[in-house]
Structure to design on (675 residues):
C-alpha cells in the first residue's frame, strides 16, 4: 500500500500546485536555514582523531603565574594550552609514551636551486618525527626523519603534496634539495593530501586553517632561532640567566603544542607519575609556583576545552531549529487546509473499505513526500547560504562552510521529520472525520 | 442477511438530543431487493449509514451476514464494509481526479488484491455497466447516468453480497433513472441483496418489499409485489 499512497500523494500534490509549493517552501526554508547553521556547527565539531580518542592526549602543565590562573575568560581548566620550550624538551626525554610530539607553527621562504620559480612563503610545522605516525598522516614518497634529527640540527624536510606538486611537478622528490630561507634542506618524504578540520593538533592558530606545507625536525631551533608563528603566552619577563635566543628558549612563555600516545591505562598511570615527579622537581628549582596541576586531555575534550564550537554557535543552532519549528507550524496550517478540503474523498474511501489507519497513513505519506521535496529544496537553500558565508568570510570559512553527503542526508531526514511532525495532526483530523457527513453532501 | 433489533441512534449537542432511530428493527433476507421510503429527516440515511457500518448505533443489536457487528473495531468494520458491502450514492461520489479505472480500483486496493486480479475485476465490472471503452476517462467527462453506472461498477467490483443505494436515481433524468434501476434489478437477480433508499414511489414499488421510516421507526411493512397482486385480484 505504501507505493499506492505515494502515487496518491504525488497526484494530490500535482492537483494543488500552489498550496503544495507553499508547503514545500515552508519546509525548505526552515530546513535550509537550520541546515546552514547546523552544517557550520557540525563541520566545526569534527574530530579527525576520534578513532584515537582513548590513546591520544594533549599535555598541559601549569607553569603559570603564581598570582593568577591561566584563564581565558571562557572556561577551560585554567592550565596553559601550550608548554614552554624547556618543559617540552624535558618531556621528550621520557620513554613512557609510545609516541610523543612537540611542535609549533613557523614559516620559511622557499626557493629551488637553479630554478626560475618565484620564491614563496610556506607555512611550516616544526615537529618531532612522531607527528606523522601519531596523527595518521599518509605518505606518498619517503617517510619521516630519523630520531637524531629531533635532537641535533639536520636540515631535512617533508613536503605536503601541494608543495611537491608546485616544486617538483608531483614527482618523487625524496633526496632533492629545497632551499628554506636560503639554506639547503633535503627532502625525506612527501605526504598525501591531509587536511583535518578543525586542525585539532594545533587549535591555537585558526582551527580551520589549512595544514602546513612543510614539516621540519624539532632540533633546528637554535640554528634558525625559530619562534612561534602562532600564539605565544607569557607571564614572566624575569631574568632567567640567559641572553638572546637562549633566554626565549628557557623563558616561561608557552608556545609549544605537546601530544602523547599512551596505549594502556598502566602507561597513562606511569606518565601521570612522571609528570607529577617532573613538576615536583621543577618546583624544587623554583619554577611551577602554582599548586601542582597538569592535564592529559583526549582529542574530543580538547576540542571542547579550546572552544572550537563557541556558545554563540550553539545558540544559533537552537535559534535555527526554533525557526524550523515556526515553519512546521505554518506547514501544519497549510496541510490542515489541504487535507480538510479533501475530506469528501476521504469519506468515499472510508465507505469503500479504508480504515481510519489507512486514511491516516495515506495523508501522513503525503506529508512525507512534501518533506522529501522540502528537504531537496532545503539542501539547495543551505548550499546557497553556505556559499554566501564563504563569500562573506573571504575564504576563511571555506572548509567549514561546505556540506558533505552526511549533512545532505541529515537535511532530508530533518525535512521528513519536520513534515511528519507537521502532518500528524492534519492526518489524524481527517482520519477521524465522519464519512457519512461528506457522502450525503457531495 | 441483515438483522437489526431495537437499534437506537441519537445525536447529542450541548443542549439538544436528537433521536434519529428509535427501537428500529428490520430483517432483510439474502437476495431481497428492499426499498426504503419516508419523509426527509425520518432517519433513512441514518439507517443506511448504520447498515453500511459507517456509523455505530447508540444501542440495539445489528447482525450482518450472521455476525454481530456493533462491537467491532474500526479496522474490522472497514474490512467487512470492503468485503461484503457495496455503496451507491445519489451524488455518485466518484473521486474527480481519478479516471474510471482508478476509481473502481479504490476498494480493490484496500482488499489487497494483486494487480492482475484488480485489472480483471475492473474490466469485468466496467463491461457489466457498458462502459469498457471509457476506462481512461475522468468522471467529469461522463454524463450523470454514466457516472452512476461507474459508481455501480465500483460497488460491483468487490463482488459484495449486500448493496446499499442512497437515492441512486435522485440526480438523474427519467430515462437515465430507468436504465440505472434496470441495472440494479439485474444485479439483484444475480443474487446480490439490495437495500435502496428512494423518494420515488414508482421505483420503490419495483422492489420486492418497501419499508417506510417515520420518526426513526419502521412504520409500515408491505410486500409491494403481493400488494399489487391483491389490488389486481
Amino acid at each position: 500500500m505504501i507505493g499506492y499512497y505515494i502515487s496518491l500523494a504525488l497526484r494530490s500534490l500535482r492537483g494543488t500546485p500552489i498550496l503544495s509549493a507553499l508547503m514545500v517552501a515552508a519546509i525548505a526554508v526552515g530546513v535550509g536555514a537550520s541546515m546552514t547553521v547546523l552544517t557550520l556547527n557540525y563541520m566545526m565539531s569534527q574530530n579527525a582523531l576520534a578513532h584515537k580518542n582513548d590513546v591520544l592526549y594533549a599535555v598541559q602543565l601549569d607553569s603559570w603565574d603564581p598570582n593568577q590562573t591561566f584563564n581565558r575568560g571562557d572556561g577551560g581548566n585554567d592550565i596553559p594550552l601550550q608548554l614552554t620550550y624547556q618543559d617540552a624538551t624535558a618531556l621528550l626525554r621520557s620513554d613512557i609514551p609510545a609516541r610523543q610530539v612537540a611542535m609549533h607553527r613557523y614559516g620559511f621562504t622557499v626557493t629551488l636551486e637553479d630554478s626560475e620559480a618565484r620564491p614563496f612563503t610556506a607555512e611550516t610545522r616544526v615537529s618531532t618525527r612522531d607527528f606523522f605516525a601519531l596523527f595518521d598522516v599518509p605518505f606518498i614518497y619517503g617517510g619521516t626523519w630519523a630520531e637524531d634529527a629531533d635532537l641535533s640540527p639536520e636540515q631535512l624536510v617533508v613536503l605536503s603534496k601541494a608543495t611537491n606538486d608546485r616544486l617538483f611537478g608531483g614527482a618523487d622528490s625524496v633526496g632533492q634539495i629545497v632551499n628554506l630561507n636560503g639554506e639547503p634542506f633535503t627532502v625525506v618524504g612527501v605526504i598525501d593530501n591531509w587536511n583535518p578540520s578543525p586542525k585539532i593538533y594545533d587549535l591555537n592558530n585558526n582551527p580551520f586553517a589549512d595544514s602546513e606545507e612543510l614539516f621540519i625536525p624539532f632540533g633546528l631551533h637554535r640554528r634558525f632561532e625559530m619562534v612561534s608563528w602562532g600564539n605565544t603566552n607569557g607571564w614572566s619577563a624575569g631574568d632567567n640567566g640567559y641572553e638572546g635566543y637562549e633566554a626565549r628558549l628557557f623563558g616561561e612563555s608557552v608556545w609549544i603544542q605537546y601530544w602523547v600516545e599512551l596505549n594502556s591505562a598502566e602507561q597513562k598511570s606511569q606518565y601521570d607519575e612522571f609528570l607529577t615527579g617532573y613538576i615536583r622537581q621543577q618546583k624544587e628549582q623554583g619554577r611551577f609556583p602554582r599548586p601542582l596541576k597538569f592535564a592529559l586531555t583526549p582529542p574530543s575534550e580538547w576540542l571542547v576545552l579550546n572552544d572550537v564550537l563557541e556558545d554563540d554557535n550553539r545558540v544559533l543552532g537552537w535559534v535555527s531549529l526554533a525557526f524550523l519549528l515556526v515553519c512546521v507550524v505554518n506547514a501544519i496550517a497549510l496541510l490542515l487546509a489541504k487535507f480538510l478540503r479533501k475530506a469528501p474523498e476521504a469519506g468515499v474511501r472510508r465507505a469503500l473499505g479504508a480504515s481510519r489507519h489507512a486514511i491516516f497513513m495515506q495523508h501522513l505519506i503525503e506529508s512525507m513526500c512534501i518533506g522529501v521535496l522540502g528537504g531537496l529544496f532545503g539542501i539547495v537553500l543551505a548550499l546557497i547560504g553556505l556559499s554566501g558565508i564563504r563569500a562573506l568570510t573571504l575564504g576563511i570559512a571555506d572548509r567549514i562552510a561546505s556540506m558533505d553527503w552526511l549533512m545532505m542526508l541529515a537535511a532530508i531526514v530533518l525535512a521528513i521529520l519536520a513534515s511528519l511532525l507537521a502532518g500528524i495532526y492534519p492526518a489524524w483530523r481527517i482520519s477521524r472525520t465522519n464519512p457519512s457527513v461528506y457522502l450525503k453532501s457531495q | 442477511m441483515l438483522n437489526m433489533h431495537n437499534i437506537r441512534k441519537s445525536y447529542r449537542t450541548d443542549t439538544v438530543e436528537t433521536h434519529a432511530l428509535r427501537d428500529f428493527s428490520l430483517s432483510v433476507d439474502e437476495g431481497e431487493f428492499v426499498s426504503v421510503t419516508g419523509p426527509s429527516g425520518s432517519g433513512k440515511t441514518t439507517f443506511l449509514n448504520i447498515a453500511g457500518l459507517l456509523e455505530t448505533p447508540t444501542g440495539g443489536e445489528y447482525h450482518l451476514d450472521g455476525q454481530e457487528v456493533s462491537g467491532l473495531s474500526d479496522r474490522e468494520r472497514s474490512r467487512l464494509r470492503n468485503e461484503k458491502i457495496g455503496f451507491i450514492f445519489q451524488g455518485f461520489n466518484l473521486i474527480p481526479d481519478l479516471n474510471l479505472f482508478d476509481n473502481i480500483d479504490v476498494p480493490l486496493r484496500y482488499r489487497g488484491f494483486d494487480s492482475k486480479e484488480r485489472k480483471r475485476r475492473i474490466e469485468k465490472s466496467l463491461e457489466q455497466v457498458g462502459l469498457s471503452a471509457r476506462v481512461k476517462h475522468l468522471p467529469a467527462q461522463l454524463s450523470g447516468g454514466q457516472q452512476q453506472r461507474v459508481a455501480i461498477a465500483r460497488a460491483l467490483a468487490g463482488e459484495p453480497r449486500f448493496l446499499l443505494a442512497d437515492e441512486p436515481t435522485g440526480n438523474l433524468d427519467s430515462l437515465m433513472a430507468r436504465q440505472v434501476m434496470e441495472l440494479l434489478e439485474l444485479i439483484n437477480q444475480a443474487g446480490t441483496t439490495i437495500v435502496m433508499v428512494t423518494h420515488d414511489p414508482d421505483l420503490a414499488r419495483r422492489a420486492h418489499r418497501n419499508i417506510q421510516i417515520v420518526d426513526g421507526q419502521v412504520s409500515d411493512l408491505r410486500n409491494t409485489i403481493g400488494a399489487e397482486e391483491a389490488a389486481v385480484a
